[in-house]
Structure formats: C-alpha cells, structure tokens
Amino acid sequence: MPHGDPSAVPAGFPRLRSVDVLIVEDRTETAKRLAGAVDLLPEFRICSIAHTRQQGLQDLKRFRPRAILVDLGLPDGSGVDIIRAAETADWDCDSLVVTVFGDEKRVIDAIRAGAKGYVLKNDRLEDIGNRLRTVLEGGSPISPQIARYLLALVPRGAAQDGSGDLPPGISLTAREQDILKLISRGFKRQEVADKLQITLGTVGTHINNVYRKLEVSSNTEAVAVANRLGLF
User: Apex CA 44: angle with CA 42 and CA 50, to 5°?
Assistant: First the structure.
C-alpha cells in the first residue's frame, strides 16, 4: 500500500488519481478529516499520511507528492523542515500549512521556507480540498487572521509617499497593489479578475510582475515582502 502507515489512510481511497498529496499531521483524527476533505475532489490521491517530522521527510522522498498538507507542531520537530525540503526538491511540490499556530515566528518561518498558503485549524477543514486546489492553480489561500497579521507588519503611515525606505528601483503600480491587497485577503485569481473587471490573464501578468519586482515566488511571500517594504 503506497503510504508510510497502512493504518493511517481510511479504507476505500481510490488509487488512480493524478495529483498525489502527502499529509503530515500528528493527530490521527485531524489527519483523517483532512484526508476525507481532500478525497472529495476527484483529481487528488492521498499517497501517504505521516505523523512525525522524520516520517514526513522520508515519505516526501519516497512518494514524491505534488502537494503537501503540513502541520508545524510535530512531536519530533517543526513542519517547516518538510516545507523547506519540498521547496528544494527536484520535482514540483507545493506546501499548504494547516496548523493551530498563528504567531509571528512560525508564520514568517513557514513563508520563508516556501509555504504557498497558511490555513489555521479553526477554519473549516472541510474546505481544505478547495484550498489545496487553489494552491495548485497558483493562488495562496490564507486564513483571514493570518492575512490581517501580514497587513499589520508595517506601521501605519509607513512609506505613504511610495518611497520610504524601499530599496532603489522597487515600486508597484496602483493596479499591482490592488491585486496584491485582494490576494492578501484570500481572493482567488478569478475572483480578483471579476472584482477588478479584468481578464484572468491580465491578473496573472500583474502577479508575475510583482514576483519579479519583489524577487519572490509565491503570493504569500509577495504579501509579506510588500508589507515589510511599506508598499501597501
């Protein structure tokens, strides 16, 4: 059976799906809830459920999943190590944090390690499959509490003239800032396009420009960096 703990994955999971997902969660019941929610979407397949940092790292290499749902507080260490390993893997592997921790250090550490989204467990875990789909579509789902925290990183009034202490040459257009603000509030790319009455392709072009200017590779990183630089 293709996972590290044969008893961990509920019986009856189909095995012929296109997107392998690794779940790293130490609480068995929570892991089962996550697996059940992911299984609602037919394109996903649970390849393994790991309950420790060590098992997560082993299963990452063994199964080479396309995506990971990862808790940060594991019995033998931090899930950030697994995120970092996924980010530096020699195949595409996106990480979505699902945790109870919303403090500054853990949020920033996870984003810097390469997390593409950050969801708190007090959100509806039943929606986690759709949030994972958002990650694979290029979005960055963030719990409202985390989005508010990221937006509060920069003191009020910082860089109001658009320059402040910004590194030379870095600036975002008004449209890029509008899009980044909507993303920071958890809107998907199509929802951003609908709200701003522009095409999905135009949203993607603006987001790619933001990535290039801020030297980041995910929406989550872009929001954090933009706040630190006072670009909002």
Answer: 140
Please state, as a whole number, how many other Cβ atoms lie within 10 Å of the Cβ of residue 159: 15
Pick the closest to residue 24 from 52, 66, 61, 65 (CA basis).
52
The correct answer on CATH 1.10.10.10 for the domain covering 151-229 is yes
> What does pTM read for this prediction?
0.65
Residue 184, C-beta contacts closer than 8 angstroms, at least 6 positions apart:
142, 147, 150, 151, 223
**Domain-by-domain residue ranges, the chain?**
19-136, 151-229
Tens digit of each residue's pLDDT, the chain (232 residues): 344 443 344 444 444 458 999 999 999 999 999 999 999 999 999 999 999 999 999 999 999 999 999 999 999 999 999 999 999 999 999 999 999 887 778 888 888 888 988 998 887 888 899 889 888 887 778 887 777 766 665 444 444 444 444 455 567 888 888 888 888 777 778 888 898 999 888 888 888 888 888 877 777 778 777 767 766 5
